[in-house]
């Protein structure tokens, strides 16, 4: 009993990290993966109180927030928390956090950094090969027992020699380029500014990039500028032999227009990990063999999840020990991607 | 009429290339893709005669054979054709041709050479990423509308850092190694002899290779020595976290044993383009999400098919013009692979 009391006392003395909604990883693994002896979690979603009331009640305790893509950190939330000094997100993308408000208040932000870049780039290549070479569709064909009754399966397209255009040459875009070079693809890119060290052709706008590539890979962050960046004009420049891959954020593409192009055969195919209204996916895509989809899990593997847990906990522990964050976000220089 | 007669006369004077069964590409594209003004085809499969009688009838005409994986060129066939001097196969694999008989008779053999190596290597990477990252399975999940109702999908495994073991470091194996290095995999291999120039770890036998890798890639030729090379012992050395990819020939793996391992979870998954009794596929595999299959089309794309047609016709034309073959097979040094 004495030990229990002592534990309770020391527990309540620990600094508080607010969680608005459980990150997706909690559902997969339980929440003890992010436990630490150096801080405690305050779980808003476990309280019967409405959020604003919950925040009022704990306003003086919350020093940090653990955030994830599905749980926005709005200016309203931030304003209710006068002692908030840190937001750590389990994502590489930051579009769910009001960064201006953080900047004004001097609140530090830490992200998943480049932890997902390799997995994300692997997914890009996997989706691209799948769409070009019809791997998922052929797998379905074989598993339906059609090979022996219906014979040869329609040919796919070669990856080698394809012109690949990358939108957003950040850490993921760079990893994608490195991989696709090994397949004999030629790489070009568009980003806000030309990268002096990148050995790839730069196109100052996305329409030009799309007009000069066979596969367009979306790796940029979702911002006001990139919302619906991939619109009718871009898709039309990509053309009927073009393929598009999106592992960044759904709203970067005008999804309605993309669906129309895919249904009409105005582009050759798509590999999509993200959607405008996740987890809702346009039903028109369900029947299309030239569309390969994944449920926003391009960033995640067992191995990267383990790395992420260490990074998230490490960021909070560093912060509460007055040490430098492990993966701080420079709020004036937002990264190219969103993972 | 005069022109037609003339055409018929000159057609019948052209040297004869026997086709026993139409190559798979004929079914896809029609047979005019391999036409040439310099020779004519004699199509055994279009004649009502039994094969031996057909061969007797045309014994003095046949100077060459166009062969493919599905149409064996046996010693019996060869012996019925005293003027046969050349066999051209549309495959990289040669296991359907009696090479000893060709060697004895001084019959030249030409193959698809390395035309399929890049496509094959791309398929290996596509299948490997698919199995590890569950791309086909996740695609099915999304297309069945399960994402919004059932939530997050089970995590896959990271490709980066995996130890990849290649069985047969020929042209395809080498292309696979080149690609997977760009993903951060470490490469080792087994082949009949150590390759002095290959910068990868050599294991003198397949069991050792399997025991030291996370993914085993089968890229060797099917010969008497490699038949059922991948047996219970090798699969057990690969172990429950191991993945196997086969784009070479079905009978290199003891398929019954592989199916048992997959059903029992004794290996993690498989990507299979080839099977022991194609086009029949073990039905036990139809229900397994960790098995991705393609209908022996890893070698083929529109682009490589076009290259193949040029090469096949080019080989015959060179031969009938007494020029060197474009892709001769050195019968004393059979290549590592089978495509």
UniProtKB/TrEMBL annotation, chains A, B:
Name the UniProt record assigns to this protein: Hydroxyphenylpyruvate reductase 4
Occurrences of domain D-isomer specific 2-hydroxyacid dehydrogenase NAD-binding (ranges): 125-298
Positions of transmembrane segments: none
Domain of life: Eukaryota
Record InterPro entries: D-isomer_2-hydroxyacid_DH, D-isomer_2_OHA_DH_cat_dom, D-isomer_DH_NAD-bd, NAD(P)-bd_dom_sf
All copies of domain D-isomer specific 2-hydroxyacid dehydrogenase catalytic, residue ranges: 52-329
Gene Ontology CC entries for this record: cytosol
GO annotation, biological process: oxidative photosynthetic carbon pathway
